[in-house]
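Annex B. Sample input.
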Amino acid sequence: MGSEQTFTKKVLITVGIVVLAVLLITALFYVFDVILLLFAAVLLAIFLRGLADLLNQYTKLSEGASVLLVSFILIAIVAGAILLLAPSVTEQAKNLRVELPKSAKTAADYISHFNWGKAIIDQLPSTEEVLNKIDIPAMLSRVGGFFSSTMGAIGNFLLIVLLAIYLASEPKFYVSGLIKLFPVPVRPRVGEVLAAMGHTLSWWLIGKVISMVFIGLVTWIGLSLLGVPLALTLGLLAGLLSFVPNFGPIISAIPAILLAFIESPIKAVYVLILFIGVQIIESNLVTPYIERRTVELPPALTVVAQVALGILIGGLGLILATPMLALVMVLVQKVYVEDVLGDTEVPGPKSKAPSRRRKKAVSGEPD
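Annex B, continued. Sample output.
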């Protein structure tokens, strides 16, 4: 009788755990857009906080005042850049829409001289058909249900900025509140893991900003020297899309190569060499320097994460896939590899063996 009760109890516990797991996964699915919004705000908050800390080295402003000052300076810079560049970029963007079909036709005519090229072109839709099918508002409306259907793109962007300012102004308040959700013995270790995650995201953002500026400027200068039209717009496009690893550089290179085909195929080859050279320099200078201070992301795993989140969430998932993967890598290394498996000799940055106090905190032993 006792064994039957024990078996029944185990079955009920197992069923309860499975039901709870299903409910948590379902809830996570429905609120994942909100999680992405919060994660985007955290990224921006870390960026603002880093600039504010740099400002505090030369001023005696409070944390909140320095964050607000940095935010206003950034807004002024962005607004000034829009006022200065918007007319030129807008005109070039209009020309880009007109010139791309022409350059695509020129490239298609050239490739069709080859048998393999003609076979490929016969299977592709015309450029006009592709452009007519592109519905920008519809595309944006599918980038995360919450971001589009609830408040709209502009409202959500402002919400992200507002959340980021709040988080950057009082980071200790929110971090300490999160730490208090965990049992007392492991709170010190939770603080260490959160600090490692913040360190990783900070350096990842620094690397991305440097990379975007470098790629945008070098691409603009290179295209200008090659005589490619709309060099400024193409340079801005290359810099912005470089935020998305792997896929961004490929997407940004396509219009530049097509426009170069207007003049000659050899110029398109030069443009392709330019984009490849810029990516080689960036990946061998900026990326290794940053990865020494954060965590090295396996390229195959990065692509899988981008494709998975891109399919599940849309464009926003593709954009945020890399920093989210970086956080997962930190959690796996710190929590599972070091604390659960006890392996403190794992490769990567900041992989120091835990101190005696930290071991006590994890195991629950008294000091």
